[in-house]
Amino acid sequence: MNKSRWGRALGALALSLPMLLAACGGSDKDTGNGSMRVALTDAPSCGFDTVFVTVQKVRVHQSSSAAEGDSGWSEIVLNPAKRVELLSLQNGVLAELGQTPLAPGRYQQMRLVLAANDATTPLANSVTPTGGSETALNTPSALQSGLKMNVDIDIESGKMADLVIDFDACKSVVTTGNSGQYNLKPVLKVTPRFVSGVQGFVDLTLANGSTLVTLQQNGVVVRSTSPDSSGKFLLQPVAAGTYDLVLTAPGHVTRVVTGVTVTADTVTAFNTAATQLTLPTATGSGTANGTVTIAGATTIDASVRVTQALTGGPTVQIASAAVNSSTGAYSFALVTDAPQKAAYVSSGTLSFASDAAVAGKYSVEASSGSATKPAVAISLTNGATVTTPFAFP
Questions:
Q1: Which residue segments constitute the domains of the chain, with CATH numbers given?
Q2: What average pLDDT score do residues 213-224 get?
Q3: Of 5, 65, 230, 343, whose CB neighbour count within 10 A is largest?
Q4: pLDDT tens column, 349-379
């Protein structure tokens, strides 16, 4: 991929982060400094058994436009570099990257620096596709200066900014044609290390690695995970607020629970092991596929997501993935059964009702860098395929 395309991809990582969490330890009170602590987490991956990255540094700067070689960078250096299996970082599990003292002030740029695959460590960054063998994950030279995130972090004297980098492996690893090669297209976001979140259980038949539990607001996924082998899921860290909990699994009806409330510094107990969530088996499915093209590009840096608008709300995301970086192709298997919706209750039994009016009805939209094409409504019937192409200038 050319550098301008990677620039667009990195620019898409920009976020506003006016945040600071106070901590009792870890600050540098004698010098008047504050400090920053950073950990790494992940969202579930699509079609991979493992995704490894090797982290060398976390760098932070007060200028959003500072270049790699400019003065003023502060660093967390991992020596030796830390090889992390991203898919193990679910259900609240974090990989600690360390901390560093910082002078008080606002910091606007963060970079996650990965080690390169070389003769000594050829699989420093790698993927294992489901049913396949471990292979190197290509990290283009444009990323060697670090995976850039534009942030707004306020460091106060005697306090610690406690942060989590969410490295979305599903969207960050893209297939290159039929070559058996994989490229890294970084999709990262930074959040405070909230204590609050949501914990619950699904039926053991759904504890198979392909079930996805997400907390969403206005159709945007805030936190996602796959249940562990006991059926337990933990969506953390999550800011206090009200969310929709969406449960999807291949071959099963989608279930949406609205109005799930998260309180500051509290993990909401959604349900217990005795009241596990189940998903009915779907009776039909169809395929939504297509191709994304970008004028003048030989490598397609784009992603596609599928949403469903329930009667009376909400609209929820059902699936998303990066397109094939060589062909631009995407494909989703989607159930044609009506989704089911229930209002959240803190105690008692959830009452799910089928939304027959939207059975098989979805919207598909594509994004590349900071550009997003308008969503296209589709209607699927059992066994049918609907093809939706997208073209970016």
A1: 3-192 (no CATH), 194-393 (2.60.40.10)
A2: 95
A3: 5
A4: 899 999 999 999 999 999 998 899 999 999 9
